[in-house]
Amino acid sequence: MGNSKLYKGSLNTIILKLLDEEGKMYGYEITQKVKELSKGELNITEGALYPALHKLEAEGLLDVEVAKVDNRLRKYYKPTEQGEKETINRLAELEDFIRSMQQLVNPKWSIQ
Length: 112
Hints:
This protein is an alpha+beta fold. The protein has helices spanning about 5-10, 10-20, 25-35, 45-60, 80-105; strands at about 25, 60-70, 70-80.
């Protein structure tokens, strides 16, 4: 996907959705899962990922666990109970947005 601005506004929702499905993940793992699921179309940079993770944590939507792996500390992120509820809300908003965009871009193929 050439224009990262198109998905930048959905980054927090993407992160919440992945963590909701996977339970807990560390940053690099999140970037690789997004790349895998999008067949290489979406590449999340560290410069975009970590500020988003910190913002979600500050909003009380993510908890952080620190574990020692190979003599290094690794932060694992997982959704809080509030984060799980917010994931549902944000996914519904994103689906509505996609539906509206589809109607604008290609009315013949609109999803009802």
